[in-house]
């Protein structure tokens, strides 16, 4: 099922869609005489990812320090939630849905997404995974998540389905129009000969890897059990008078009325839109542009962080990620356009995209003669306090959790985030990694 497949469609088209995509247990909610909201319940059986599973044992063994108990709010100590609603169909929300759906307590999980699965940064990111590039606040989370990426790829044929593979990651430097004074070793053969002045190794195939993030999200949704996906705009987290969660208010295109989706627990994983639902969790954002390129000549799996001194004296630092079927490149972030209401409404500045192409052409003739196949933009979420995302219970709200503000590391750290939130929700404490410093309660101190 593609990220945009769940949508408003005529009923006959819905039946054809189900036959083509093998969606199970579909229920419809009437909108008018001709339109139906498609809600898919993914019940495909999958191997369990419980603690005794070898993949999780290897993930836990990767921790260098014993995890500390995660700070708890007494009112959030719940047991066996029957229904969990997740707001956000990006990689953090999808990963959380997956691990919740495979937990032995078997909660019913509903994922609410306004546009399509991986419609924001999760579908337009480079997909770099790094084992040991992280500060103290996120190092434990990153180690867990890196191992989970590897185990998910092994379990579900991720090399074929979402382009998982190990990478060598390099930092390269050059000056446009100026040849280096000496030969530089270690330059990949698809870069311009006699242009690169410096090469540094940032990661090996033991410490860096990649995924195609949109394809990863789509596959993990399919591998979730008993997952209900609702395409609608989550406009409000609804609370009872005692601030205990009641559910999520959802608006649907074409229907004036809103509907409350009831829940025992709500997880807000809405990326840069998180603060619109949780004003006490400050998440800011910046826009990032990227392109994908098709080339006539295959290139080796070397991720590149570049430092290119241009003829006008400015410094360009595009990042280049070869994939199995294309090359991805991204440029600098900006704050020139405000965050829109929906991911589908993000505006793309084609001039910025063409500048990325111009800059990377300095280092590679193969890229220079490539064809741009996509120009795109997305918004990255940043926590305004602290160096890492907010992961855990929201202060002052009973049974509401948040996972947002991962910045450019959302793809890398999403599986670990989903696993840890599942532990918090279903077991009462986080045990697989130490993320105490990511506690959302830091905003109230």
Give structural notes.
With 445 residues, this protein is an alpha+beta fold. The protein has two domains: 9-154 and 211-278 and 386-444, FAD/NAD(P)-binding domain (3-Layer(bba) Sandwich), CATH 3.50.50.60; 168-204 and 285-383, D-Amino Acid Oxidase, subunit A, domain 2 (D-Amino Acid Oxidase, Chain A, domain 2), CATH 3.30.9. The chain is built from eleven helices and 23 strands. The strands form four sheets. Strands 1, 2, 3, 4, 5, 11, 15, 22 and 23 form a nine-stranded mixed β-sheet that branches. Strands 8, 9, 16, 17, 18, 19, 20 and 21 form an eight-stranded mixed β-sheet that branches. It has a three-stranded antiparallel β-sheet with strand order 6-10-7. Helix 3 (91-101) runs parallel beside helix 11. The two termini are 44 Å apart. Mean pLDDT is 85; it is low at 1-74.
Question: Going by CATH, what is the homologous superfamily of the largest domain?
Answer: FAD/NAD(P)-binding domain
What is the third-level CATH name, the topology of the largest domain? FAD/NAD(P)-binding domain
End-to-end span in angstroms? 44 Å
Secondary structure tally: strands: 23
Number of helices: 11
Mean pLDDT: 85
Q: What is the helical fraction, as a range of percent?
A: 10-25%
User: Which structural class matches the secondary elements?
Assistant: alpha+beta
Number of domains: 2
The first-level CATH class name of the largest domain:
Alpha Beta
Beta-strand content: 25-35%
General form:
elongated
Low-confidence stretches: 1-74
CATH architecture of the largest domain: 3-Layer(bba) Sandwich
Q: Main beta sheet, described? A: 9 strands, mixed
* Radius of gyration using CA atoms only: 22 Å
């Amino acid at each position: 099922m593609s990220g945009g497949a769940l949508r408003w469609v005529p009923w006959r088209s819905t039946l054809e869609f189900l036959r083509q995509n093998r969606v199970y247990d579909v229920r419809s909610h009437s909108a008018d005489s001709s339109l139906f909201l498609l809600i898919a319940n993914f019940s495909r059986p999958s191997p369990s990812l419980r603690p005794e599973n070898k993949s999780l044992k290897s993930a836990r063994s990767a921790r260098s320090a014993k995890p500390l108990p995660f700070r708890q709010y007494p009112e959030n100590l719940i047991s066996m939630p029957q229904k969990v609603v997740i707001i956000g169909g990006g990689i953090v929300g999808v990963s959380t849905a997956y691990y919740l759906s495979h937990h032995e307590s078997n909660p019913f999980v509903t994922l609410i997404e306004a546009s399509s699965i991986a419609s924001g940064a999760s579908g337009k990111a480079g997909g770099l995974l790094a084992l040991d590039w992280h500060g103290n606040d996120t190092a434990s989370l990153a180690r867990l998540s890196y191992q989970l990426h590897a185990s998910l790829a092994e379990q579900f044929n991720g090399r074929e389905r979402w382009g998982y593979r190990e990478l060598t990651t390099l930092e390269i430097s050059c000056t446009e129009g100026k040849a280096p004074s000496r030969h530089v070793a270690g330059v990949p053969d698809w870069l311009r000969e006699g242009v690169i002045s410096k090469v540094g190794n940032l990661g090996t195939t033991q410490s860096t890897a990649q995924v195609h993030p949109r394809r990863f999200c789509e596959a993990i949704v399919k591998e979730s059990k008993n997952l209900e996906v609702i395409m609608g705009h989550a406009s409000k987290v609804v609370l009872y008078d005692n601030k205990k969660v009641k559910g999520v208010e959802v608006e649907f295109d074409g229907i004036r009325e809103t509907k409350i989706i009831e829940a025992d627990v709500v997880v807000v994983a809405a990326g840069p839109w998180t603060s619109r639902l949780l004003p006490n969790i400050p998440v800011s954002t910046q826009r990032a542009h990227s392109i994908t390129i098709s080339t006539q000549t295959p290139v080796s799996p070397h991720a590149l962080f570049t430092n290119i001194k241009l003829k006008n004296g400015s410094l360009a630092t595009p990042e280049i990620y070869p994939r199995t079927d294309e090359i991805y490149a991204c440029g600098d972030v900006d704050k020139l356009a405000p965050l829109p209401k929906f991911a589908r409404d993000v505006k793309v500045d084609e001039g910025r995209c063409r500048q990325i192409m111009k800059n990377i052409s300095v280092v590679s003739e193969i890229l220079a003669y490539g064809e741009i196949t996509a120009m795109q933009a997305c918004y990255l979420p940043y926590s305004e306090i602290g160096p890492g995302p907010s992961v855990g219970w929201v202060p002052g709200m009973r049974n509401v959790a948040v996972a947002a503000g991962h910045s450019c590391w959302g793809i890398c750290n999403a599986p670990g985030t989903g696993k840890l939130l599942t532990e918090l929700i279903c077991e009462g404490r986080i045990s697989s990694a130490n993320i105490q410093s990511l506690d959302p309660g830091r905003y109230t101190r």
